[in-house]
Design a protein that fits this description.
Layout lengths: L17 H10 L5 H17 L1 H16 L6 H13 L6 H6 L11 H5 L5 H9 L4 H10 L2 H14 L2 H13 L3 H11 L2
Length: about 190
């Protein structure tokens, strides 16, 4: 009889292969909302527990967000939510491209300001300070509407860095109404 002893820790975190992440991504291609939801939940679990899985997700989600919601809105929203929930900073430029998609469902004015109907903005808020450089870039090249949405995002991030970016924009913003909005949001 042979006895094998191991020094492996009983507390070791299980390693998930990129194959299981790839399979979950494949399941996202389903037309079934419940299948998409289950695959999304699996990806969040994997992304939070396995650095390799998170890396895979961070590599593959931004280009899918970049494409936009043209094929299937529900799937695109899933990618956007994954980026936010896993705080994937690499997705910030793709998310900023879709700042003004805000007609997803009916909503109150307060809900609008809290970004409840705008998944790209909500994801940028979740990414928080890591998204600020991308949001600031919107001020440099965005339309008035895009700049207003960038202000909403920074208001929701509400960190010292976000407030600093708003103070900086207050001095540069060409639109008087948006300057007033920024001033009010800063409590000035």
């Amino acid at each position: 009889m042979t006895v094998v002893l191991t020094t492996a820790s009983i507390w070791a975190v299980p390693q998930h292969s990129t194959e299981s992440v790839a399979l979950a991504f494949e399941r996202l291609q389903s037309q079934s909302p419940s299948e998409i939801k289950e695959a999304s939940e699996q990806l969040v679990r994997l992304g939070k527990s396995d650095p390799k899985a998170r890396y895979y997700i961070a590599l593959h989600v931004p280009p899918l967000i970049e494409k936009g919601p043209k094929d299937y809105l529900g799937r695109w929203i899933t990618f956007v939510r994954l980026a936010g929930e896993l705080k994937i900073a690499e997705a910030a430029p793709a998310l900023a491209k879709w700042l003004t998609i805000d007609n997803i469902g009916e909503i109150s004015t307060a809900g609008f300001i809290r970004l409840e109907n705008n998944p790209a903005e909500a994801a940028l808020v979740q990414i928080a300070d890591l998204a600020i450089p991308t949001v600031i870039a919107v001020f440099d090249h965005g339309t008035l509407r895009e700049r207003r949405y960038a202000v909403y995002v920074l208001n929701q991030i509400n960190s010292s860095s976000a407030k600093g970016a708003l103070r900086e924009q207050l001095n540069r913003e060409p639109d008087e109404d948006l300057r007033d909005f920024i001033r009010k949001s800063l409590g000035s």
